[in-house]
Amino acid sequence: MLDEKLKNHHIILASGSPRRQEFFKNLGLDFEIRLKPVKEEYPPRLTHFEISNYLAQLKALPFKDELRPNDILITSDTIVWHNNKALGKPRDENEAFTVLKSLSGKTHDVVTSVCFTTQTFEKTLHDITKVTFKTLTHEEIRYYIKTYKPFDKAGGYGIQEWIGQIGVTKIEGSYFSVMGLPVHLVYKTLNTIADLP
Questions:
Q1: How many angstroms separate the CA atoms of 53 and 114, rounded?
Q2: pLDDT tens string 78-127
Q3: Which residues are annotated as catalytic?
Q4: What angle in degrees, to the nearest 10, is found between the helix axes of 138-148 and 93-103?
Q5: What are the tens digits of pLDDT across the range 7-54?
Q6: CB 6: neighbour CB atoms within 10 A?
Q7: Measured on CA atoms in the order 77, 81, 84, 85, is the torsion positive or negative?
Q8: pTM of structure
Q9: 141 Cβ neighbours under 8 A, 6+ residues apart
Q10: Which among 68, 4, 62 has a CA at the least distance from the CA of 36?
Q11: Residue 32's closest CA among 77, 4, 63?
């Protein structure tokens, strides 16, 4: 399958996310985790998927001079887009509460972008999933924040955790994209790269 097609390539996953790393393991791929610090800032003129595309490409920049001919670097970014603004990772319990309260009873977009970089080309794609929450009580929000401490997650929640199980009433799009990686698009793109001359 894909691992056989990519046997002459070396995949570098530039992500500390255990969820993204697990997805790559599940695809049966050999890959190296390589991390470099990046200040995740973007121009204020950008909106929606432009933000996650920009950040995914930004995360690839520190690696460009060290890529070898058979390397495929994969960088990714996820944002939650709600009320015409990007919701980042909450800094503390109060911010997490405010963010989750704003998502309660409404539908928001989760946008995940993935950037594929080699010595000769760069391709960035994105995936949009619409997620609807039931009306969450203040007690439910506080319990989730105290128990799961979702400060490393865009929009202040992980769909695979308790809040997703009891609170998400509808998903339009890829569940895995909400978790942090549109696996179907990654699989398709890696197949395309493997077929390149």
A1: 7
A2: 999 999 999 989 999 999 999 999 999 999 999 999 999 999 999 999 99
A3: 77
A4: 130
A5: 999 999 999 999 999 999 999 999 999 999 999 999 999 999 999 999
A6: 20
A7: negative
A8: 0.94
A9: 97, 100, 101, 104
A10: 62
A11: 63
